[in-house]
Design a protein that fits this description.
The protein is an all-alpha fold and 70 residues long. It has a single domain (2-59), classed as lambda repressor-like DNA-binding domains (434 Repressor (Amino-terminal Domain), Orthogonal Bundle). The chain has five helices and no strands. The chain has helices at residues 2-11, 16-23, 27-35, 42-52, 56-59. The radius of gyration is 11 Å and the shape is globular.
C-alpha cells in the first residue's frame, strides 16, 4: 500500500508537501505514510482514494484494478 501511494503521487507529478496540504497534515506525516512508518488513518485513506479516483481496495493492494465499483 505504501509504495502504491508514492507511485500515484509521482505519476501525478505531485510533491509530498502538496499532498500533505490536501490531507491537512505535515509533510513529515505524509512521508511517514509513504515509508510505512505510520499507519494511514481511514479518513486519510478515503481522501486519497477520492483524490486519485481509485478504489480503497486498490490502495490496500487487494486488487490490481484501480477502478471503483459504481
Amino acid at each position: 500500500m505504501y509504495q502504491k501511494i508514492r507511485d500515484l503521487r509521482e505519476d501525478h507529478d505531485l510533491k509530498q508537501r502538496e499532498l500533505a496540504e490536501y490531507l491537512n497534515c505535515s509533510q513529515r506525516t505524509y512521508s511517514n505514510y509513504e515509508l510505512g512508518q505510520r499507519d494511514i488513518p481511514t479518513d486519510v485513506l478515503i481522501k486519497l482514494a477520492n483524490f486519485y479516483n481509485v478504489s480503497i481496495d486498490y490502495l490496500l493492494g487487494q486488487t490490481k484494478n484501480p477502478k471503483r465499483n459504481k
